[in-house]
Amino acid sequence: MDGYLEFVKSVANEQNKVFIMDTGEGNDFIDPATGWYIEDFSGWLIEPSKEDLLIEAINQGTQYSTFKDSYVFAKWFQTDDGKIKVRFVRY
């Protein structure tokens, strides 16, 4: 798995959630400190107990309606000291 995607998933895990990526959303950056290709992601931020249900919904093509309230954007930003951080935003 991509190092940056693993990082985003670890941020979700710190919130006792699981992040399942849907697509990349641009805002591209190559982090010189880690070598990661970074971009904003969209996807689902869910309770771990719902992960199998989401996977099933993806396989059935119903994920956008069934899990619409869990759809978020994982937006990255850089701190003043150059560290990469991610916040999950609902629109």
Strand order of the largest sheet: 1-4-5-6
* Low-pLDDT residue intervals, each spanning 5 or more residues: none
Which sequence of SSEs, written as H and E, runs from N to C?
Answer: HEEEEHHEE
**Number of DSSP helical runs:** 3
The major sheet is characterized as: 4 strands, antiparallel
Strand content: 25-35%
Question: Cα-atom Rg, whole angstroms?
Answer: 14 Å
Q: Could you tell me the mean pLDDT?
A: 96
The count of domains is 1
Percent helix: 25-40%
Please count the beta strands (DSSP E, at least 2 residues each).
6
Question: Which structural category fits the helices and strands?
Answer: alpha+beta
Terminal residue distance:
27 Å
Shape label: elongated
Structure description:
- The chain is of the alpha+beta class.
- The chain has one domain (3-89).
- 29% of the residues lie in helices and 34% in strands.
- The protein has a four-stranded antiparallel beta sheet with strand order 1-4-5-6, covered by helices on one side.
- The longest helix has 12 residues, at 3-14.
- The mean pLDDT is 96.
